Structure formats: structure tokens, C-alpha cells
Amino acid sequence: MKLNDSHAELDVDEMEWMFRKNPADASKKLDEKKKEAEKVPAQPKEVLLFDPKRQQNVSIAIARFKMSSEDIKNAIYALDGQKLGSEVLNVLISISPTLEEIDLLKNYDGDVKLLGNVEKFFLDLLTIPRYTQRIKCFRYKLQFENRILETQAQLDTLVAATDQVAESDKFRRVLEHILAIGNYLNGSTPRGGAYGFKLDTLMKLHTLKSVDPRVTLMHFLLRQLEEKAPDVITFAGEVPHIVEAKRLSLDQLRADLSSYNTELAMLKGQVRASKNDHIEGDKFYEVMTPFAKDAEEVLEELGRDFNGLETSYQELVSSFGEDPRKVGPMEFFTIVDEFVTEFKKAYRQNQTKEYQTIYEEAAAARAAAEAAKAERLKQEAEERQRQEEERQQNSQETKAIYAEIVSIITTWAGKHSPGNEDAVMEQFKDTSRKFGMDEITGDEFCDQVRQCVGSKCASKIIPNSAKLLSDEEKQNVLLEAFARFKEQVKKEKESKKQQRNSLVSPPSEGRERAGSSSAGRKRNKVVVPLPIKDIEPVVGEEAQLLHKSILESVLAAFGGDPKKMKSFTSHTRKYGNEQITAHEFYQYLMDSFDPDFVGRLVPDLARLLQDSEKRHALIRALCESAPGWAKFAGL
């Protein structure tokens, strides 16, 4: 059956009026409630001084104790470790009221009964003098023995590990083999010949691979020890404590000792403060006084042990070239332990068939290489013997050639410059040295030898000098220069034949000289006695002879006048040093001598000039004063 309330008609206003609440009934119920409330006395409100989170945390801790605050207080006075163990004391210390909370509790002047459980708990415990310090001292006493035993064990481990590494004879011999290998590999480098090595070297042995990447320097070390010193392979048995020592820290031990002494100082202060407490059941002064004395003695002995360990460890680490301030036991003993691990691993691998095969093949290859080397050395020795025999033969020939050169030079010097034989020889040696050091060319060498001993002797000395050269290329250079030298000498000889009559002759004496001079000046013309194009420089012995002849002729022309001779020498030097021009020099000659004499003098002076520009300039000055000089324009 389906119903629809929209089909029913109701007077809702009347319904609301008829069924409204009765005001009289409501007023009556309110009065009844007030009367009942007046009959029940008002409950006092709980006073909470701490914030809710603090209340919650402390409440949870108190609940775990399962002891009243009074029981806890009595146990603290009695120093009862059975009731209050280290764990309970740790919790009590962790929840101890702060200074601010203590002030809140002290300043509360209301009804204590209204305080919360946490506040009441703290108020009760704070009746103990220096509550927080007392429970810390109590905990220090309870934990002291175990903490000291643990620290002593760590000290003993580090002392044992340090002494074992420092005193192990087998480990020292292993290190000596490592040092020998390192010095050999480094050879003549700055690291060769060392007396020790850095600690990290131990970590590199198993990473340095041989030509066969499967074999490292650690494998090689083990092979050598197996053959040369098999007893040291078991050195790990002499350093058993390094495994434990690598987990320990000197800094942590130092911090622990410092903490123990700091807490002991606090305990002594509390002992002095508790002397006059006089609280029933309080055993703090009675128990803690002898304990403080015993603890002090234990810590002093522990401190001495630590200082001894620190000294021994510093010496050990320093012996490896490391700074003890930077390398602690954890790092040091870890490296040693890892070295031992890799050492054992390499030893086990060396015993396998795979590695035995590697070493056998390497030995065979080495034997073949050594045989080839021996054969090569034999051939080299034979070649050296052959070269030595050849050298000795050449040495005899060299001595003979050199003796011949010395003989030629000394003979020439004795004839042309008596008393200067050694100086001439030294001049030749200096010239030879310059050519050997590439300071002069082959042509310059030939010219300088010629100037030293003349053309004839130079023609004998130069080819012999070439024979003395061990450098074949330099020898060829000198021989080529000598060929050019001979050609030049040949040309000079031919030219000399044509020019032999052109050497300057002194003018006739007296009237003839005066007449000739007068006639020359009257003509004011210079007679050129030979073709200028044939004038070439002279060197060596020929130059010396020409120079001497010129000086004699000039001196005769000046009638032996030293002042005029000095002036001539000065002008000649100035022209050679480019202080005066060719025309200025020529004009000086014309002013000083008969023109015909100048015509014969200038070509000979030109022959002494090695500088072609100066030589041509002087000849041109001569030609320009002669009839038909233009025909010499090509000079």
C-alpha cells in the first residue's frame, strides 16, 4: 500500500499551540536541580604547574618505577643499588626538574594536596639535599667498575696491538722486503735508496699489476718470501690484536678519561657538602668518601697507562713517516689489517694451479730473454773489442799525423818567428778548437791557418787536420774548404807572376827623386803601372812580405822621418777603421808623396785589404786621377 501525506489536511497552528511545553513544568524541574546541587559540596580544582606534555612524559616514567616517591627517596639515601639500578637512575636524571620548575614548586603557596601527581612527586624528591647531583653521583658509583673495566680493556687492546706491530720481527722483515722492492723499482729516482716508506704504500701493493694483470706486486712479494724467507709468511700470528684495535679511538679514550675525572670532581664536592647533612638513613658521606679515594687511585693508574700508550703509538706511527696527530689507531690498524687480509689472499692464490702455471711460463720466458741478452752482450763485447783494436791502430796513426803537424809548425815558427814557437802552436790549437766547436767555417779555418804559418805550410797542415777529425761530416767540410783553398792559392801564384814587378820601389835619391817629384807634380797625373782588375788581396806569408816592403819604401820616401812615418801609420789605421774615406786617404797620400810613388803604393796597399769594398774604394780613388779612368768603372 502506498501512502501520500500530501493528501491529508491539518491545522498545524492549532497542533503547535496545543502540544507546546508547559512553562510551569519547566520552571519546576529547574528549581529541583538547584536544590540538589546545593545539597552536594563543591569539589576543589587540581593545580598543574607544568605544561601538559611535560606532565605526560613524567607520568609515564613514574608509572614504570612501580615505586612511590617515598620509597625512591629512601633508596637514594641508602644508596640501595638493588632497588635503584643504573636504568632507574638514568630515568630519574633525565626527568629531573629544571631550575625553572624548581622555582615554580618552591614559590607555590597554595594547598599542596591540590597539586598534580607529578608536582607532588618532584616536591617529595626535592627534599633530598642537592637531589640531582646526588643521583648522578649514585649512578657514577654504580657504573664505575664496568666503565673502568671496559676502558681498561680498550687500553690493553691498543697497547697490545701497538707493541705487536712495533716488535714483530717477522712483520719487520716483510716490510724490509717491501722497501727493497720499492727501492729497486724506483731505481735512480729521488725515491730510490729510501730508508722507509709511507703507510699508504701497504695499500698499493695489491693494486700494482705486472705485465700479467692477474699478478700484482703483492703476489710477487709472496713469491719472494716463499723462496727467500718462508718463515715470515706467518707474521699475521704475531699481530692478532690489530683486528680489535682498528675499532678503537685514542680520542674517545681520552674523552672517557676526562669524563671520569670530571664526574669524580663533582662527587668529591658532594662528599664535602654532605658531611653536615645529618639526615636519618643517609649513607652518602659514609659510602662515597672511601669510594672517591679508591676511584681517584684507579683513574690515576688508568691515566698513566693511557699516557704510555699514547707515547708508544706516536713512536710507531712516526716510524712509518706519518703524523700521529692526523693518523689515529682506527686508520692505522685498519690499513695494517687490510694489508694482512690482502697478504693472505695473495698467498692462497699463489698456491693455486693457475698461478703456478703463470710463474712457470714467466720463468721460461725470462730464461729465453736472458739467453738472448747474453748473446747480444757477447756480440757487443766482440764489437767493442774490434773497435778498440781499430781505435788503437787509429790512435797510432793519429799520433803520427799530429806529430807531423807539430813538426811543420815549429819548423816554420823557428825560421820566421824565432822564440815564438809555442805561441804559434797555441794559435793553431785555438783555430782548431774554434772549428771543432763550429765557431768558424772550414774556409775561415783554412784562411786562419794560412795567416798563421803561410800558404806552403797550410797546404800540408790542413789535409792532416782533416784526418784527425772523428766526425766524418766535419772532415768532408774541411776537405771541401781545402780544395777551394788550393784553387785560391793557385790563382794567387799566377797573379803574383804577372804582378811581381809592381811591388813598390823607393824613389831614387837626391836630384833624381826631386826631379821626378817635380815632373810628377807638374803633370799632376798618376801613372797606373798595371791593370787594376788583376789586383787581388794577399794573405799569410806573402802579405807579411808585402807589408814589410811597403813600410821600408815609405820610410825611405820620408827620408827616415819618424813623425811622417807615424802620420802615415795613423792615416792607414783610420782608413781601415772607416774613420776617413778612401778619397781623404788618397788625398793624404798625394799630399805626402810623389804621384808616381802613389801610383805604385796604392795597388800594394789595396792588396793588404781583405775587405773588398775598402779595397775597391781605394783603387777607384787612384783610377779617378789617372787618364782614361772611366775604363775601370766596372771595379
TrEMBL record:
Signal peptide segment: none
Protein name as annotated: FH2 domain-containing protein
Region feature Disordered, mapped onto this chain: 374-397, 490-522
Basic and acidic residues bias spans: 374-392
Gene3D superfamilies hit by this protein: Formin, FH2 domain (1.20.58.2220)
Keywords of this entry: Coiled coil
Coiled coil feature spans: 243-312
Short name of any one Pfam family annotated for the protein: FH2
InterPro entries: FH2_Formin (IPR015425), FH2_Formin_sf (IPR042201), PAH_ZNF598/HEL2 (IPR057634)
Protein origin, superkingdom: Eukaryota
Domain FH2: 1-369
